[in-house]
Amino acid sequence: MLPKRRRRMVASFWLIVLAFGLVLAHLYQIQLAQGYKYARQAFQIGSQGIALEQFARGEITDRQGLSLTGGYYANRVAVIPALMDEKEHCLQQLADILNVNVNQLKDRAQRGAFYIDRTLGAGTCAELQNTDLPGVYLLPVYQRYSDKPLAVHITGHIGKISSREQFEQMQGAGSKAYLLGDWVGQSGLEYFYEQQLKGTLAKRWARVPVDALGRVIEGPGLLVESSDSDPGRLNVVTTIDGNIQRIVEDVMDEQIATGAVVVMQAGTGDILAMASRPGYHPEFFQAVSTIDEMPGELFVNHCTALFQPGSIFKVVLAAAALEEGLVQPATVFNCAGAAARPVRCWNAAGHGLISFEQAFAESCNPTFVEIGQQLGADAIIKYAAILGLDKQKITGYPVPADTRQDLSLIAEPYSLANCSVGQGPVLVTPVQVTAMMNTIASGGIYYTPRLVTGLSDHSGRLVQQYSAGRPEQAISPATAVQLQALLRGVTESGVGQKAFLPGVGSAGKTGSAQVDGYDDDKVDAWFTGYVPADSPRYIITVLVQGGKSGGDTAAPVFREIAARSMEVTLLPK
């Protein structure tokens, strides 16, 4: 009998422990896991108020934590209908001052407090202050986008959930709750990190306490509250350096109508700047209602799009020929100029007998066609892949791969000669070209490009980091040294002299890709290189679509960006 009683006591004890554990788990769920949610619901029930934040989202920042979208506070007209004694009269006066439709104000007032997202002139602000309408306030509201946000093709844009299908997709994407009409990421980092960026609480609120019947509780009046944190949102920290990004965009606005520029930190895969033109302002999407209204070319990120590289691709052949021992810098070739077959030289008169070193500096086509024939398609494909021209991965920036990039097409009949000079089916992105040049500047070590360092909380502490992966020895250090000397020859005595930077020197390669649809005198003009020539700091790739040539069009842009960037002190992350 005693053992039976003991068993009952033990069973009862564990039942009590289990029940207590369930209660603790439930309390944890209410107080900690979803405490902010219930607190917000209680706040909304017990007050009438508005969020003083245009969009409740985390920031997208540069490597130092500075907002790339350029967020700032601006005065907006906040309307609290519960504080209006004569609501219709007050709304009519407000409509007259702001020159807006009073019926629109009445419709919004029926749904509660709101603010008017509109920039006010000094005269309008003064008139509002002098009129002193009850329930109408000028309050600072956090705006996500400045007049000149940075890196818009990287950060992307947000837009409203406009269909039932998209709404259901967002609801099933993660733990965040959505409503039809919510603003969500539609492209770029805003899209890729929607679940991490989306906030659950506004950081600043204006409110008035109300009772269960919605009547204002006398005493407190308008309360403006703020919080340093929102447990639901994180910030996306990029590798971008805001100072260098601004330099790149300013130079592009001056000199490039259509094209791309990528700047990478030498010796790492970190992208310091990445800009595409033509550009756009993210607030454009607040003025259109359907995707059909959007001129798509504006939103193409040319930095990750595919282009024929032209003579930039000769770097691959040079690396392969040197690594395989087929050539030395002094190896002599013969250039017949316009009479050369199957590909003529840009120099109609021909270079005659020319060393490999000179042929690289002068970008002699017949020399590289001959080298391509000696190497064969398989070797060219191998070294193009080793140098990253088949890798579209960018750490932290999961752009879908473009399947049109297929190095195996180099082996197709009649393709070898054109591919040897970067034409035909050879396609690359400016980011890939930059990573290739970084491999040479870094002693033959390939680094995977990286755009996102990680995710940070409200205090700036990284809570998740993204590693670019292990570097790989792509070519031997000895071959890299030989290529570095060849690249210096391009800017010191060859076709890329307009990219030379006095005082510190530079090294690089030009490219002029002939593209269907251009006039006969227009090409996709490339220059990719690094600065300084010794101890490289920055790898810079410039693509100008519809340019004259790589040496005449892209090289001067490289030099301008390089000169300004050398004045920037690159701070550690």
UniProtKB/TrEMBL annotation:
<dbReference type="InterPro" id="IPR050515">
    <property type="entry name" value="Beta-lactam/transpept"/>
</dbReference>
<dbReference type="GO" id="GO:0051301">
    <property type="term" value="P:cell division"/>
</dbReference>
<dbReference type="GO" id="GO:0005886">
    <property type="term" value="C:plasma membrane"/>
</dbReference>
<protein>
    <submittedName>
        <fullName>Cell division protein FtsI/penicillin-binding protein 2</fullName>
    </submittedName>
</protein>
<feature type="domain" description="Penicillin-binding protein dimerisation">
    <location>
        <begin position="56"/>
        <end position="218"/>
    </location>
</feature>
<dbReference type="GO" id="GO:0008658">
    <property type="term" value="F:penicillin binding"/>
</dbReference>
<dbReference type="InterPro" id="IPR012338">
    <property type="entry name" value="Beta-lactam/transpept-like"/>
</dbReference>
<dbReference type="GO" id="GO:0071555">
    <property type="term" value="P:cell wall organization"/>
</dbReference>
<feature type="domain" description="Penicillin-binding protein transpeptidase">
    <location>
        <begin position="259"/>
        <end position="562"/>
    </location>
</feature>
<dbReference type="InterPro" id="IPR005311">
    <property type="entry name" value="PBP_dimer"/>
</dbReference>
<dbReference type="Pfam" id="PF00905">
    <property type="entry name" value="Transpeptidase"/>
</dbReference>
<dbReference type="InterPro" id="IPR001460">
    <property type="entry name" value="PCN-bd_Tpept"/>
</dbReference>
<dbReference type="Pfam" id="PF03717">
    <property type="entry name" value="PBP_dimer"/>
</dbReference>
<keyword id="KW-0132">Cell division</keyword>
<keyword id="KW-0472">Membrane</keyword>
<keyword id="KW-0131">Cell cycle</keyword>
<dbReference type="InterPro" id="IPR036138">
    <property type="entry name" value="PBP_dimer_sf"/>
</dbReference>
<comment type="similarity">
    <text>Belongs to the transpeptidase family.</text>
</comment>
